[in-house]
Design goal:
Elements lengths: L1 H32 L20 H17 L3 H20 L6 H4 L2 H16 L8 H11 L11
Helix pairs in contact: 1-2, 1-5, 2-3, 3-5
């Protein structure tokens, strides 16, 4: 059983990355463009451009979430996303109460730790990060090992 689960690990990690990236990007899109109900507390509106920290957080959410979703620059994008969520928790939520369940910061904490996990694990399967690695590996093979197709 463990061997099968271990063999599926890159695929499960890839699916985890896609879901977390999509959810994070949707938060940014809602805040910036007013889609899917808009920014929290605006009744379907958007965050005013350039306002600190909300607008910048929304840009990070959209860009980093999109990159993580695609698996492109996953580790760097996840590090920035994790840091932004740590900032959101400690600057916005923890002022209200100590525990996330009390201060409404559960989502910030979950995103923070999810992205931190991706910093250490990488993109898993299905990530565009893996494409340049495959090309490099093929290019580094000795000429005798490369198989060319006859025209």
């Amino acid at each position: 059983m463990s061997a099968r689960l271990n063999a599926a690990q890159p695929y499960a990690l890839g699916l985890f990355r896609v879901v977390v990236g999509l959810l994070f990007a949707v938060h940014g899109a809602a805040s910036l463009f007013g889609v899917l109900g808009g920014a929290t507390g605006t009744d379907g509106g958007t965050i005013d451009a350039g306002t600190w920290p909300g607008w910048y957080a929304a840009v990070i959410q959209l860009v980093a979430g999109g990159l993580v979703l695609l698996g492109l620059g996953t580790r760097g994008a996840a590090l920035i996303a994790s840091g932004s969520m740590a900032y959101a928790y400690f600057d916005v939520h923890q002022k209200a109460a100590l525990w996330p369940i009390q201060n409404g910061g559960e989502l910030s904490v979950l995103f923070c730790w999810s992205f931190l996990l991706l910093v250490f694990t990488g993109s898993g399967a299905f990530g565009l990060d893996r494409l340049p690695a495959r090309r490099t590996a093929v290019a580094e093979k000795p000429a005798a090992e490369r198989v060319t197709a006859a025209a």
